[in-house]
Amino acid sequence: QLQLVESGGGSVQPGESLRLSCTGLGFGLEYYAVGWFRQAPGKEREAVSCSGSRTSKTDYNESVKGRFTISRDNTGNTVYLQMDNLKPEDTGTYYCAADITFSCWPRGGAETGWGRGTQVVISQ
Q1: Which residues of the chain have pLDDT under 50?
Q2: What is the pLDDT of residue 110?
């Protein structure tokens, strides 16, 4: 099993920023593709961003392009999601996932490990 821990969620106003962290426990996150996903109340889970394993490849949901940035700190075994200019529609529970695949997006099957999620609330 792949154990992941998310942190950095909170409640902020529109236009403000948050930085989410995803840390791998007991394995080298550097060797896994890592993705961020979110789920708002009453809606389906959607992909937000991904970072390829040992590559510079990244991808973003069109709704967050230009506002969110995914990055890695291999020394700290952590993947970050910097979220700027937050909007109310960004509200939801954010999960990170890791998968040993050459592609950028974790596949979401039995081989994919998930964190427990961190809450993000954007409201006036």
Answers
A1: none
A2: 87
Which residue carries 């099993």 as its tokens? Answer: 1
Q: Output the DSSP codes for 11-53.
A: EE-TT--EEEEEEEESS-GGGSEEEEEEE-TTS--EEEEEE-T
CA distance 8 to 87: 17
Residue 93, classed as helix, strand or coil, is strand
Q: Positive or negative, the Cα torsion across 2, 26, 96, 44?
A: positive
Residue 94 pLDDT? 98
Bridge partners of 83, per DSSP, are: 18, 68
